[in-house]
Write a structure and sequence with these properties.
Blueprint lengths: L2 H25 L13 H27 L1 H6 L7 E10 L2 E8 L2 E8 L2 E8 L19 H11 L1
Antiparallel strand pairs: 1-2, 2-3, 3-4
Length: about 150
Amino acid sequence: MKPTLIRAAVLSLPFWAISSALAQTTNAASSPLTAPGLPDASLSLIRVIGALALVIGLFLGGVWMVRNWQRAGGQGGRTAKLAILETRSLGNRQAIYVVGYERERFLIASSPGGVNLLSHLATAAEGEPAGGTGGTPAPSFAQALTQVLKQK
């Protein structure tokens, strides 16, 4: 529609509404000005607020599920098999790691050129996880390094 037609329709609306209202007030001067059959405004407001709260709750629950998907159902209570037991930086983007997988332990070097296996370390004791959180503590970095140097 053109803007002039919209403006003409809007300007003619108040005159029609005023004449209709005047006719009703002269016919029933003692009746209240509420329209029959309209729902209670407070009940409608409560329904709208309840629906909004439900939608916001569903949205926040969905966001929580997406962020915590792995924790909620991804691992199913399994313990991690791979663990970095200790790390030492050697300078500019170079480091040495003691890594455990199940009961095996490895000494690994990392540099800008890549990752290299330096040595296979002693196997963890029976029942001790790779992370060294069992009965006997995991060897410290210094102990693991001296063990590797003694082997060579």
